[in-house]
Write a structure and sequence with these properties.
The chain is of the alpha+beta class. It has 6 helices and 8 strands, in the order αββββααβαβααββ. The strands form 3 sheets. It has a 4-stranded mixed sheet with strand order 5-7-8-6, with helices on one face. Strands 1-2 form a two-stranded antiparallel ribbon. A two-stranded antiparallel sheet has the order 3-4. It starts with a helix and ends with a strand.
Length: 222
C-alpha cells in the first residue's frame, strides 16, 4: 500500500506548509528556483527494522501515522540515538499540537514578527527600560545540560528586570556584556534568541486598563 491522495492532501493542508517541529516553511526559493523540503514521515515504520516499528500495526499509511517534517527533522527523528526522545507517543503529540497551532494561526490571521537578538545590548533594549513583565518561551528541553544553560539565562533575565530601574549605567553595561556571553553560549549549543517589545493592558482597580511595556523572548532550537 501507499499513502492515498486524500491522506496526502489532508496532511499538507493541515500542516500549514510547515514542519511540525521547527515550523519552517516547506517551499523556498533559491536562485530563482523553487525547492520543497517537506517530507511525509511515518511515525510507526512498516519495515521490521524501521524506526518505531510495531508489528501488525493497523494501517501504516493512515493519516494518524504520517507526520510532515523538513528533511533535517526527518533525519533527526529516525536516528536510533533519538528513539528515546521521539517515541510514537511524542511524535503523535507533536503532530496534534502543530495542527492545533496552524488552526489557531489561521483563525487569528495575525503574524507576529520577532527580531533575532544578536547581543546583550539588543536584549537589554527589550527587557529593560521599565518593562513590567515578560512572556518567555523555549523549545523542549532534552537534557540536564540544556536545562541548566537555558534556565540560567531565564534566571539572569528575571533578576535584571527586577532591578533594572535601580541599576547605574555602568551596571547595565556590565549586564549587556554578560548577556552577550550567554547568547554566544546558546548559539554554540544550537539555540537562537528572538524577542520584541510589546504594549499590554493590565486590569487594575477602578477599571484602569492602562498600557504598560512588556517583553516577549523566545529561545528556539536552530
Amino acid at each position: 500500500m501507499s499513502i492515498s491522495d486524500k491522506v496526502r492532501k489532508d496532511l499538507w493542508a493541515k500542516s500549514g506548509n510547515r514542519c511540525a517541529i521547527c515550523r519552517k516553511e516547506f517551499f523556498s526559493c533559491i536562485d530563482k528556483a523553487d525547492f520543497n523540503i517537506g517530507e511525509e514521515c511515518h511515525i510507526v515504520s512498516s519495515q521490521p527494522n524501521g524506526p518505531r516499528h510495531i508489528e501488525n500495526y493497523c494501517d501504516y499509511d493512515s493519516y494518524e501515522n504520517i507526520i510532515l517534517l523538513c528533511r533535517n527533522h526527518h533525519k533527526e527523528i529516525d536516528d536510533p540515538a533519538n528513539f528515546n526522545i521521539y517515541t510514537v507517543e511524542k511524535l503523535t503529540e507533536i503532530k496534534k499540537e502543530h495542527e492545533r497551532w496552524v488552526r489557531q494561526s489561521l483563525a487569528n490571521e495575525k503574524v507576529v514578527v520577532l527580531s533575532l537578538i544578536r547581543n546583550g545590548t539588543e536584549l537589554v533594549s527589550i527587557i529593560g527600560n521599565g518593562a513590567v513583565g515578560i512572556y518567555k518561551y523555549n523549545d523542549e528541553i532534552r537534557n540536564m545540560e540544556e536545562a541548566e544553560l537555558i534556565g540560567g539565562v531565564w534566571q539572569e533575565i528575571s533578576d535584571f528586570m527586577d532591578l533594572s530601574l535601580d541599576l547605574e549605567p555602568i551596571e547595565v553595561t556590565k549586564m549587556e556584556f554578560i548577556f552577550s556571553e550567554m547568547i554566544n553560549n546558546l548559539d554554540k549549543s544550537g539555540f537562537l534568541v528572538y524577542g520584541r517589545r510589546v504594549r499590554v493592558r493590565f486590569l487594575k482597580k477602578y477599571g484602569d486598563t492602562s498600557l504598560y511595556n512588556a517583553a516577549q523572548v523566545y529561545i528556539k532550537r536552530k
